[in-house]
Structures are given as C-alpha cells and as structure tokens.
Amino acid sequence: MSRNAILEDLHAVRRKILADCKGDTATYLREAHERLAVSGRPISHRPQRLIRQPEPVIPSDTATEAVAGAPLDQ
Fold this sequence. Notes:
Strand content: under 5%
Number of strands: 0
Largest sheet: none
Distance between the termini: 70 Å
Structural class: mainly alpha
Shape: extended
C-alpha cells in the first residue's frame, strides 16, 4: 500500500486528540463546543434536514379490480 503523508498526519492528529481526552469522543465534542462558544465566532443553528420518503402508492378500487380480475363487491 502506498504512503500518503497527508492521511498519516490526519491520523496522528486524531490519535493525539483522542489521547488528550482519554479516548472519550463525547469529552472532545463538549470541549470543542465550549471553545467555540468562548471564541465569539457566530454559530449557525439550522434545523436538521430530513430525507424525504416517497409517498406510498395506494391502489384505487379500479386498479385492484384490474389486478384481481373481478370487482370486490361480488
């Protein structure tokens, strides 16, 4: 496998961040949020985007009759 210096640097930084927080990502995220709040930089609070699910197709009575071969009333 070829060496990628950029990825190696990223992995090293990740290992250091996790080591500083004793492997606890929740601690890292909490501390990062606190640093951001203290920094005075604007923070955007946008609503979470939802992935739309397609509407279910409900067959009409005529479509059911055509599939079944006979009306449901009989």
